[in-house]
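hey so i finaly got around to running the thing on Ribosomal RNA small subunit methyltransferase H from Borreliella finlandensis. pasting the sequence first so u can double check i didnt mess up the copy paste, my clipboard has been acting weird all day
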Amino acid sequence: MNDNAFHFPVLLDAICKLIEDLPVKSDLIYIDSTLGEGVHAKAILEKYDFLSLVGIERDPQILERAKHFLSIFEERITYFNDWFDNFFVNYPLNVKANFILVDLGISMFHYKGSKKGFSFLEDEPLDMRLCSSSCKISASEIVNTFSKYDLEALIYDLSNEHYSRRISKAIIEYRKIKKIETTKELQSIISKVYPFSKVKINPATKTFQALRIYVNDELARLKRSLPFWVENLAKDGILAIITFHSIEDRIVKDFFGGLSCDLYAKISKKPIMPSFDEIKKNKPSRSAKLRVIKKL
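ok and heres what it spat out for the 3d tokens, dont ask me to read them lol
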């Protein structure tokens, strides 16, 4: 197995500052709700020996990579192969967490190494399921069976794609001729109907985002988890959530805004953003926003 991770830990300096500000620094529980390859976890465990990690990861393929990547810390880690919402709803630990990290971005491994069709840069089967056994529908089934109206609504609602109507129409017309089976095939369909003058990112970016969110039920899992994340924080515990698009960021912002000021404190009024230097080193970090609350 390759020892090198595909992913870079986004906003790591800001996260480390949060840990350094914890009032107690011995025998603390750090839960990584979205372990991925373990890049945040590795950097944090190397720096803070007073933390024990509970790592949650739904995708068994990437979890095995994380276990290998973090093997030097195995005595300080407990792993759970589960969705984070299931874990927190059925919270299995007998202690509450001192630090909960949630990175809602999809790991670069899924784009570059999983072969599940998350990216249009390689020609792969359209799947996008983080866990084939628990996700009911694949991206391929969606683009080949949903009605024009349902496709249009899905693409617009989950990505704010302004050209969702012409994209859904093009998908319907194409599949009259043949089934849409690969990422490159879908990307080509979208690119042909996208206004050239409006292209700032790849025309397929938002549609692929919408499909991935729908397939893995990402927004519902986030909404379901938020009250359980704060409930399972210890006194002075910190919940740090990194979002990557406006829809999920709005969900987190609104939830934090509705919490009692007597029970929870926002660490900063505005989200913490990556620095220019971080964006220069790691371009995908440019859309990251970190929102943080502390349990009083």
